[in-house]
Design a protein that fits this description.
By secondary structure, the chain is mainly alpha-helical. It has 13 helices and no strands.
């Protein structure tokens, strides 16, 4: 904890605060520290228990993702209220855990929009890698009905799912683009030069173009 405190930088903290995060440690330095510590599951649990965001990010880098129980991960997600901790927990740990599908289903239907956003993130992973058994048309129905008025974090996750359906599944591409155009979610999102807009129609067409497929408009 002392070493983490020493790595904290006020300017980094200020930048992170704009995105809703409350840590001041440069992530490159955090990864270097994790590389030195290597995998240590009990230390990871201890770091998580501090409640400190930098410590929790470090914990997620040195833990064994498959070692967590289902209820343990559920509790961790509900405690992970800052975007970066939430994102790393879902992407670095939950996706590699044997309970991922069970948690996806539970979180997807959760009344807490931040928890639900994790369910959508796991669903997007399945849309891309293991779509068998998913009702893609039903997902598009839900997105069409709920995305425009969803809270920010949930809206972002639903939009990612919409884009992934359009990118990965040509038979649903035209509808996915149409939904994006009608809802206009993230249409004005500031995008840096060289980066693809998160506005779903632009995102879908650009990724399909890169993959050499047939885009829609």
């Amino acid at each position: 904890m002392a070493e983490l405190a020493g790595l904290a930088d006020p300017k980094t903290r200020e930048v992170n605060a704009r995105h809703g995060d409350d840590h001041g440690v440069n992530l490159g330095k955090l990864r270097a520290l994790a590389k030195r510590l290597k995998t240590q599951q009990e230390l990871a649990r201890g770091l998580w228990a501090t409640g400190d965001s930098a410590a929790r990010l470090l914990a997620l880098l040195i833990c064994r993702p498959k070692a967590f129980g289902r209820d343990e991960l559920d509790g961790m997600l509900r405690e992970a209220r800052t975007p970066k901790v939430h994102d790393w927990l879902v992407n670095y740990v939950v996706k590699k855990n044997p309970h991922a599908e069970e948690l996806r289903l539970a979180w997807f239907a959760d009344p807490d929009p931040v928890v639900a956003s994790a369910g959508w993130a796991l669903t997007t992973e399945r849309v891309a890698k293991k779509p068998a058994g998913l009702d893609l048309a039903g997902l598009l129905d839900t997105i069409e009905a709920e995305m425009r008025d969803a809270p920010d974090r949930l809206q972002w996750a639903m939009n990612h799912c919409l884009a992934q359906i359009g990118i990965a599944h040509a038979e649903h591409r035209a509808r996915a683009i149409g939904i994006g155009e009608r809802l206009e979610v993230l249409t004005d999102y500031p995008t840096s030069a060289g980066c693809t807009s998160p506005f779903a129609p632009v995102w879908i067409n650009e990724m399909v173009r890169r993959q050499g497929g047939t885009a829609g408009g």
